[in-house]
Specification:
- The complex is a heterodimer of chains A (301) and B (256).
- By secondary structure, chain A is an all-alpha fold.
- Chain A has a single domain, classed as ABC transporter involved in vitamin B12 uptake, BtuC (Orthogonal Bundle), CATH 1.10.3470.
- Chain A has helices spanning 3-9, 14-39, 47-65, 69-91, 96-116, 135-153, 156-166, 168-173, 178-204, 214-227, 232-248, 256-270, 281-297, and strands at residues 126-127, 206-207.
- In chain A, α2 (14-39) packs antiparallel against α11, α4 (69-91) runs antiparallel to α9 (178-204) and α10 (214-227) runs parallel beside α12 (256-270).
- Chain A is globular, with a radius of gyration of 20 Å.
- Chain A starts with a helix and ends with a helix.
- By secondary structure, chain B is of the alpha/beta class.
- Chain B folds into 2 domains: 1-81 and 172-256, 3-Layer(aba) Sandwich (Rossmann fold); 94-171, no CATH class.
- Helices cover 38% and strands 24% of the residues of chain B.
- Chain B contains 10 helices and 10 strands.
- Chain B has a 6-stranded mixed beta sheet, sandwiched between helices. A 4-stranded antiparallel beta sheet of chain B has the order 2-1-4-5, covered by helices on one side.
- Classes of the chains: A mainly alpha (301), B alpha/beta (256).
- Chains A and B meet through α6, α7, α8 and α9 of A and α2, α3, α4 and α5 of B.
């Protein structure tokens, strides 16, 4: 437990700290999905499954090998990335809905596997994981994730991913080996899901395969779609709204999935590209600043 | 006779029972403006798609600079120096104009995931070269002032020119233009004709498919006519226009 957490605990209700920590974890997972679905345009209904790979991976390595926490976390992320490559190569030949169904199937398979393995505790779940995750660790990793994704997107690699999303045939005719790039994006996105899973495991200290089912995958997809496909600030906004809203609207927690569904329908009708989809924040800021500057420069009267 | 850049021998493309291209022989000489014409459904775009690897030929050989490229994937062919535009414009619509062109630079740059993350010294230099090359071709096609617009907000004619810029930025040896003036007004057509000549003068061989006869006859040095997937004739614009088989293919046979 870090000093920052102890310090904050004196002022903030520990429950809220817990909510903030979960928010950070979902942010990392959602940002991974943002790369797959938002940037590269590949529909994934199995993102929570990659979280579970990271979660079980990191927890089991910690329990059995007793390695430093950050190493366990990284190993969990890499295992998830590896799973991403394995799932990616066969399924990335599919497009759109078909890919969605394939990833959905993969997610369910993995849930059942974790449910039946001896080492993961089966349906009883995996208990006794030490609590190592702190607010500071989570948000340092959130910032690192945003930084890494920002760099990836503003590069030859990132431009190729967007080109694949926009028109795969044209992208291939520009020299982009689309299958490799799609699997690459899938692996990197899964890596972040795995890191998020590792943090989750060492926060809740108990894992149950049911935590990473279709509902969680769909939730993550909602975070990305609500905020704006292809936009990092959009994903952060969408995740924050949808994670904090149920806390504010506690009475409605049973209707959560229903609200998500309704929200998605409304979004698809009014802003199909998400709240911040297609909005260039930097350009918006520049425009606002620019007009203000012009405003002050012109003498009144 | 100048060097043959692209050589098609006996190329056949069959889709199920339909033969789109039948045993086509075609030579594209270096430094030329070369055209492929023919009535609707003659198989012109299929020829482009088979040259750029989107389709695999059912039979025949395609040699580019002496090397067999039939059956290679589109991305391999792009690396070898063949760039193209599309009949039904295929831009990256939600990306800015400049980014569209930068993607075209893919075969002439190297940076990968690790480069993007850790940005070694070479990364910035390559990005700068990509940007410079992209701005240069945007200037050439007259779209420099639109570089920050989203591609989907450009006019039809501008989108066609953006596709040409995106193809040119890879410094191709051979440029394939699939109906470049479709939907353009006469002024735009005149400007595009000038642009294509300019591109040829820079040493790029141009091979185009076009429906606009006036445009093709004024621009190309050598024309091949295709009908029902078969080559009818090849010649200069004057020869082709005088060929009775071409007139028959376009206008039908005189009854009597």
């Amino acid at each position: 437990m870090s000093m920052l957490d102890d310090f904050l605990r004196q002022f903030i209700n520990p429950y809220y700290i817990q909510v903030l920590m979960l928010l950070g974890i979902y942010l990392i997972a959602a940002l991974g999905l943002h790369l797959i679905t938002g940037v590269t345009g590949q529909l994934s209904f199995g993102h929570a499954a990659f979280m579970s790979v990271g979660a079980y991976g990191a927890a089991l390595i910690n329990l059995h090998l007793d390695l430093p926490f950050l190493i366990c976390l990284l190993a969990g992320g890499l295992l998830a990335a590896l799973a991403g490559v394995f799932v990616g190569f066969p399924s990335m030949r599919l497009a759109g809905d078909y890919l969605g169904i394939a990833t959905l199937g993969f997610g369910e398979i993995l849930r059942v596997v974790f449910m039946n393995l001896e080492i993961t505790g089966g349906a009883r779940g995996l208990a006794g994981i030490p609590r190592e995750t702190s607010l500071l660790t989570i948000y340092v990793l959130v910032i690192l994730t945003i930084f890494a994704l920002h760099r990836l997107q503003n590069s030859r690699f990132g431009r190729a991913l967007v080109a694949i999303r926009e028109d795969e045939i044209a992208a291939e005719c520009m020299g982009i080996k689309s299958l490799w790039y799609k699997v690459g994006a899938f692996a990197i996105g899964s890596f972040f899901a795995g890191i998020a899973g590792g943090l989750y495991a060492h926060l809740l200290q108990y894992l149950n395969p049911g935590d990473f089912g279709f509902a969680r995958s769909f939730e993550l997809l909602c975070f990305v779609v609500l905020g704006g496909l292809g936009s990092i600030p959009g994903t952060v906004l969408g995740t924050t709204i949808l994670t904090l809203a149920p806390e504010v609207l506690r009475f409605s927690s049973e209707y959560r999935m229903m609200m998500y569904g309704l929200l998605m329908v409304i979004m698809m009708i009014f802003r199909p590209r998400g709240l911040l989809g297609g909005v260039d924040l930097m350009r918006l800021v520049k425009r606002v600043l620019g007009s203000r500057r012009r405003g002050t420069a012109t003498p009144a009267g | 006779m100048s060097e043959v850049l692209l050589e098609l021998r006996g190329v056949t493309v069959r889709f199920g029972g339909l033969t789109a291209v039948h045993e086509l022989d075609l030579n594209i000489e270096r430094g030329m403006i070369r055209a492929l014409i023919g009535p609707n459904g003659a198989g012109k775009s299929t020829v482009f798609n088979v040259v750029t690897g989107i389709y695999r030929p059912t039979a025949g050989s395609i040699r580019f600079r002496g090397e067999e490229i039939a059956g290679l994937n589109p991305y391999h062919i792009a690396y070898r120096g063949i760039a193209r535009t599309f009949q039904n414009i295929r831009l990256f619509k939600n990306s800015p104009v400049l980014d569209n062109v930068k993607v075209g630079r893919h075969p002439r740059s190297k940076s990968n995931v690790l480069g993007a993350l850790f940005r070694p010294p070479g990364f910035k230099a390559e990005e700068r070269r990509t940007t410079e090359a992209s701005l240069k071709v945007l200037d050439l096609v007259g779209l420099l002032h639109k570089k920050d617009e989203l591609a989907k907000n450009l006019s039809y004619g501008e989108q066609r020119r953006l596709e040409i810029a995106r193809a040119l930025v890879s410094d191709p040896v051979l440029l394939l233009l699939d109906e470049p003036v479709a939907g353009m007004n006469p002024q735009e057509k005149a400007k595009l004709m000038e642009l294509i000549r300019n591109i040829r003068d820079r040493g790029v061989t141009v091979f185009l498919v076009e429906h606009d006869m006036k445009f093709v006859m004024a621009l190309s040095e050598k024309i091949t006519v295709l009908d029902y997937g078969r080559k009818i004739c090849t010649g200069t614009p004057d020869e082709v226009q005088a060929d009775p088989r071409v007139i028959e293919a376009y206008l039908g046979k005189e009854v009597g």
